[in-house]
Amino acid sequence: MALPPPLRISVTPAELELIASEQLVEIVPLVAMERTAFISGAYGPLRPPTKCKVPIWMATNLKLKKKCHIVPPDWLNVEFLQERLNRETSVPEFSELPFRFAEIAKVLLDVASDDVSNPDKIRSLLQDIREARQAKSRDGLSVLDHSELSLPNLSSMEINEIRPFFIRSMGILTKLVREPNPQQMNQLE
């Protein structure tokens, strides 16, 4: 059962993973299958060993049934993530990563870690990147201004994490800007 809007502060990480599961990923099918139509679109035909693009939800379903191998996205490798971590720790701006990188990486590492080279190192790098980006988010929010907040290249998970704090902070700042303080009222009289 869904919570009513007043009780719902943010989207849950599981819901974000569900949304991210619509992203396309390459697979190497192990079984042949004709083109199949789903609500979200038609995928296939699957002909081993030819690669095919399917949504993550379909790839994980086939992987769990041992009917495919998932080809990890280009960015889900040690070299790329190490370079991004170096950039995160040396440059004040957020480095560019796919918008749903955290959710996609979690799903693929949970379901298809045997298809990813060096999954433990990748998990470690993703955790380090997450911590570095969280520190940058906290720094950005510490200089929160009513007129503008610029945090480009945030991912969906990061936006979701700061949303409750940001909403409350902007509400308080709006009240402070709208309501004159008592000293200002005395000066006007």
Task: Summarize, please.
This protein is mainly alpha-helical.
- Tell me the number of structural domains: 2
The SSE order reads: HEEEEHEHHHHH
Number of helices: 7
CATH hierarchy: architecture of the largest domain? Up-down Bundle
- The count of β-strands is 5
Domain DNA replication complex GINS protein PSF2 N-terminal: 12-71
Keywords: Chromosome partition, DNA replication, Nucleus
Domain GINS subunit: 75-174
Subcellular location: Nucleus
Give the tags.
189 residues; mainly alpha; Ribosomal Protein L9, domain 1; Methane Monooxygenase Hydroxylase, Chain G, domain 1; 3-stranded antiparallel sheet; two-stranded antiparallel ribbon; 7 helices
Describe the overall structure.
One of its GO terms (biological process) is DNA replication. Pfam families: PSF2_N, Sld5. InterPro entries: GINS_A, GINS_bundle-like_dom_sf, GINS_Psf2, PSF2_N. This protein has 189 residues and is mainly alpha-helical. The chain folds into two domains: 12-71, Ribosomal Protein L9, domain 1 (3-Layer(aba) Sandwich), CATH 3.40.5; 74-178, Methane Monooxygenase Hydroxylase, Chain G, domain 1 (Up-down Bundle). Helices cover 50% and strands 11% of the residues. It has seven helices and five strands, in the order αββββαβααααα. The chain has helices spanning 13-20, 56-64, 78-90, 101-111, 119-142, 156-178, 182-188, and strands at 24-29, 36-38, 41-43, 52-55, 68-71. A three-stranded antiparallel sheet has the order 4-1-5. Strand 2 (36-38) and strand 3 (41-43) form a beta hairpin. The chain is elongated. The chain starts with 12 loop residues before the first helix and ends with a helix. The mean pLDDT is 86.
